[in-house]
Predict the structure.
Amino acid sequence: MSSKKILIVDDNPVVLKALSIKLRANGYEVVTAKDGSEAVSAVRRVHPNLILLDISFPPDVGHGGGVGWDGFLIMSWMKRLEEAKTTPFIIISAGDPVEFKERALAAGAMNYFQKPVDNEELFTAIRHALEEDAESEPMI
């Protein structure tokens, strides 16, 4: 079993819970964040080996609004942190793949998945990103 740390950044609690359960069942340590500030804090705290990141986030009305964080801004911000400079990103989004996929890959994401995600393909990409044996079967 792996002890690699994966940070999931998504505003949807169902996605956070479902992915967390699947990743933990496969031996990963999981940390979750529901927005950009939680994600930055988590990166500084746990130094993840991989970040699974959504693209679309609602405006932060609870903290006075202001500039909304989208996945591109979150990824850009985290890549400037010493703790995440070399951390791979995989984008998982319900957003329009025509609009987001090429932009995500150009911004440095290793892969892009459209929600709902094919678990087998996602786990293959995760093992590849973490440089693990891509032949091992995930427990989905």
In short: The two ends are 15 Å apart (CA to CA). The beta strands are 5-9, 29-33, 50-53, 89-93, 111-114. The mean pLDDT is 88.
